[in-house]
Each structure stands twice: as structure tokens, then as C-alpha cells.
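Priority: low. Protein: Glycoside hydrolase family 31 N-terminal domain-containing protein. Input follows.
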Amino acid sequence: MAGHEEKTVTSDAKAGNMIFEPILEDGVFRFDCSYPSLSFINTKDRDTPIISHPVPYISLPLNLPNGTSFYGTGEVSGPLERTGKRVFTWNTDSYGYGPETMPLYQSHPWVLAILPNGEALGVLADTTQRCEIDLRKESIIQFIASASYPVITFGPFASPTVVLKSLSHAIGTVFMPPKWALGYQQCRWSYDSDKRVREIAETFRKKGIPCDVIWMDIDYMDGFRCFTFDQACFPYILWMERFPDPQSLVKDLNDMGFKATWMLDPGIKCEEGYFVYDSGSESDVWVQRAGGRPFIGEVWPGPCVFPDFTQSKVRSWWASLVKDFLPNGVDGIWNDMNEPAVFKVFGMLMARSTFEGMKLANENKRPFVLTRAGFIGSQKYAATWTGDNISNWEHLHMSISMVLQLCEEVCRRALKRRYRLIPHLYTLFYDAHIMGTPVMTPTFFADPTNPSLRTIENSFLLGPLLVYASTIPDQGTNESQHELPKGIWLRFDFDDSHPDLPTLYLQGGSIIPLGPPHQHVGEANFSDDLTLVVALDEKGQAKGVLFEDDGDGYEFTKGGYLLTHYVAERRYSVVIVRVSKTEGSWKRPKRRLQVLLLLGEGAMIKAWGMDGDFVIIWMPSELDVSELVSTSEKQYKRLLESSKHIPDVEEVSGSKGAELSRIAIELKCGDWIVKIVPWIGGRIISMGHLPSGTQWLHSRIEIDGYEEYSGTEYPSAGCYEEYKIIERDFEHVGE
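Result:
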């Protein structure tokens, strides 16, 4: 594999059968080139021909040192580490997916390899074809696709963070979100009327639970027709008026501090007289079959056609619809059901079109788009979520790995924590947008040389902040083992510790900013009290950054912001916290500054001053520090012992002893096993045939993502088969 010393390699350079050329920046190489790139920001960076007849790589193995660990492969359920796995990238709707389900909603033909010495290498198979990523052989990456494709390598570099920054230079950084998008967002399927939406909003404020956004699912539409509202034709029949005046609804929500996000699906109902269908047919925008007729599929409205977002004219057509849709009171847009298996980039290009339409509507507002389907590069246009998951412990545990690749009082505590951390989170998003550094990373990023950290799945990093969660039923975070990276990691909280809340650690040498626990982002003022949490390193030093701007718009690209670099340093018996550097045209407001100097085990010293001035903290004696730490430990234990776990089983009135569980129950009969969630009458999540490993998911069968013919594997989009339950005769596993 080529390394940094290959900077002088020129076009037509060869390594065995591999033809490669350095591109973009030091340490990045392209092997072969064929089809245009949809993931790179500048396709010229990737598509300059190496030779006149590019080599087609249908199956490409890459050999790395023994002991290499593999990650990446995009949105796939299962463990964080992908070593020993085989993954298929093909966007698929997978309701109720399990740990072994694949493919899922997004396709990222990307592997991050962590070498035994802690260095990292990234490998991108830049193909929009269905692609198999085979990591089953030790230290070997193999990509298999049905057509030729280029392979781009990033590194080896000193750390995985450097690899991901280099990747972002090729495919783009995450879009800068509006600040309100970092607040809590209330979403479910679905609210049936604007009256119910108002009730939800009022209840949040009444109970003092922070929230910034309420989401509207498909039931706001007229017969599930996109870009319409269910405005009753008979206004004198009140119960038929579900969303009669969306602008009035959103005004009421905005007055309470809420934003409104609305669903838009790609399936457009085949119906003459429906303005979206008529204009799309006139402009010839639909995905077509081989014979030239529009492809028709069944979605919520019934028979639907789908825009062909690979065409620029179609993206412009959709963007124009979005532009006209926003004045109805649309703050954000939710793109769902956008993984039709016609091509993997459908979801990304739909999100791009939606993003561009929102910018057309108001160039002074940052678009917020959420997409279920995507391709590598989607982060430039939209956020993503983990799809149609289920409210149980198994899906909670899987969610951490997937993102990396709760009782009312506990919810209130958790959300207040989130809102206190928003200044830190917003700064992380700014860094991600400007430099390509990830907002959220696996724990091993703090120490890539430690193999034992590479399989940890119940913790993650937000910059220097380590978050340890409990994703195991009936086990609080205080009862689980917390393996920490090397160096100093100091636990802290906000006097709000609870067994069902994550444990927080700050890395020595770090400073993070906090804000007040507002009810919504709009309550925050530039002059609010600012808090800095400080954890000194072995040398008695620490540093951190705070980014501040309007929270929306693009003035920050013209210098309209304040970026403050804070440092802390221990000098004999005092710790001095001060501003070391500032950037941007904004002037610092007159505001109070609180410093929380962590001592260990939750103990801390608090000091107040004015932001911009020196804050001096006198350090207590070693004996006093020991007493503070001991007192803090006792208080922490008392707080946890007096707290109650969120119940996993809820009693229901009715039959004596009746109970409903939110946890999936396994039922077994012979060679068959079924997972059922008894909650709300019961729902079968999956059925599995133990001898063969075949798994049925929510009324269809998934055969490991491939079909078999005469004992030979032929990669395909997977196959499915409808089924019905005709008899129930199961017993609990183990009985």
C-alpha cells in the first residue's frame, strides 16, 4: 500500500496490477478510475484519467498487518467493530431490524482500519453499485461489485481522527446546523390533528421538559399526498379539520419556542389533477423502467411514481416545490421512505434537492433536513437517524454503534443535561463543519493503541467528553464497568446523577463550555452566564474552545462570530483561567463566568469572575482535596441509592397479574425462534430458523442479503417472502 513517501508518484504509476496516483493532498491515493463520482465535492479531484483504459476492479482485496481492526461500512446494525463480518451496501427499508440485519437504509462503501500500532487507514470503494464488503478474513478488506469502480485510500495516518478529516476534504464536511436543531426534538408516528400538536407543546412547557422541535408525520397531508395539508372540505364539520391552517399552528408553536418539521416522502401519488403529479409528468421527471414507462410502486397514497433525482432538471423541479412549500410554516423537512432499491444514491440526491429548495426559499436561514436513506457524502445536506427502530433495550444498545458508524423526572434531568451541553455541542459542530473533525467518535479514538478499547460499545466521545451509558436492562451506569482510555479522566455531574443516566468524564487537559438549562434554544442570550468545566492534565494545564454566533444564517462565514480559546494553568497554589486568543468580529458581551475545576470522583471547586478577565482559583491542601473527594463519593452513592430505575415491565389493569413488557421476549418451538414485544397487544419482530440462520423480519424474509443457486452465492439485493401466522404454539426459551 502506498504511503507518504510516494508523493512524487506520477500518472501511470504501477504497483503490481494496481494503477494508482496521488490526489487531493498528501497521503491520499486513487486506484483506477471509471465512473463519475457522486460523493466527492470536486469530481475533478477524483476523475482525472490515469490511463486511457482504466482497469476494472470487480473484486479488490487489500492486505493489511495482522491484528488490524475494521470499522465503518456505514449504517449497519450489530457490533461497532466489523472485523470478521460481511456487509452488503444496498439501501433497504428494514422495519424492526435486529443485530444481524443488513443491509439497512444507507450505503457507505467505506472501511476504517486501525492498525496494530494505532495508526489508521481509510478505504473508500467509490461505487454506487450494490457492493459487498467482506472482512471475514483476518486483516483483509475485500470489495466486490458488479461493475468497475475506483478505490481511494486515505493514509496511513497517525490517528483515525486524521483519516476522517482527510476523508472530509474529499467528500465534504457536515452541514452547519441551525442551533435549535441541537435541542430535543419530539417525534412519533403520528399526530392526527393540529389540536393534538398544540396539546403536546403546551404539556412540554407545563411540565418544564426542555424541547425545541415538534415533528409532523404523514397524517398532516391530504390523503398522504406530498406538499399538501389535510384542510377539511367541510369546515362546519369540526372533527374533519385536521390541519386546516398550518401557518396558524406554526405561529402558535413558534410563540411557545418550538420549531416545526414536516414529512416529505418521494412517492408521488399517480393521480391526474394532483398538481405535483401533473407538473412532474409534464416535465418528465419520473424514474422509468427499461421500456420508458414510469416505474410505479405502492406507498402510503397507493400507486406512486418517483422523481429521478440523478437528473439536474428533476432536482431543480423538486427544489422549486420545496421553496413554495416553506411559507406554510416549515422550519425543517423530514425525508422518509427514500430508499427505493432503484439506486443507492436516491436518498442522498433527494436530501440534496430538499436542502437546495430550502436555501432558495430563504438564503439567510440554514436548512435542516433529516433523511432516512443516504450515501457517503450525504452529510453535506442532511442529518440522519437510525430508521424504524423499536423502544427496547436491544435497539437502545445498537443505537450507539449505529450512530458511530425514559420516567418523566429522568427525562427532564437528561434533557437539562443536554441543554447545558449545547454550547459544547454547537462548538463541536462548528469544528466538524470547518475542519472535518467528527462530532461523535468511538471511545478508542482517545487511545487507538489500546486493543481492549476497540470493542467498547456503550460509551462514546463528544470531543474530550466521554459519555458512558447503560444499555443493559436492570443495570445502571454505576453498576457497569467503565474502562477508560489512558491519561486523566475525571467524573462529574450536575447534582443529577441517576442509574439510568450516562456517566460523564472529562479528559485531563480539557475545558468545555456549558450554558443554562433553558426550555428551548431560543431562550438563550449572548449575555447569559457562561460556565467552563476544567480538567487539568499531568502538567497542570488545560485548554478549550467556545464558538458563538447568531445560531442561524451564514454571517459566520463572513466573520460574524466569536471564537474564544480558553486556557487554564496551575501555578504553585493557584489555578488561573483566562482567554488566550479570540477570532471573529463579534465583541465579547459583559457576562459572568463560572469555573468548575474538577478534582476527581465528582468533586470540584467553583469560582466566579467576569468573562474575559482572569479567574483565579486557590487550590486547597492535599488533605482538603481528599476530604472533598470523599464527601463527593458519598453524596454520589446516596443519590444513586435513593433513585429508582425506569421500570422495564408495566402493570396493566385488567386480568389479575397481567403485565406488558417493552423488552422483546424470545419464544421457541423446535428449530424456530420468535422475538415478540408484548407491548400494546403484541408484535412479532422477527422469526428465525436456527439450523439455517434464515431470519424473517416484520412479514418478510431476509436471507443474509444474497440468494443461493445450486450452492453458489450470487450477490443480489436480497430476497423476500410474505408470510402469515396460522398457528401459535410456543414456549419460553429455557422452559
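The CA atoms of residues 691 and 717 lie 23 Å apart. The domain at 4-171 is CATH 2.60.40.1760 (Immunoglobulin-like).
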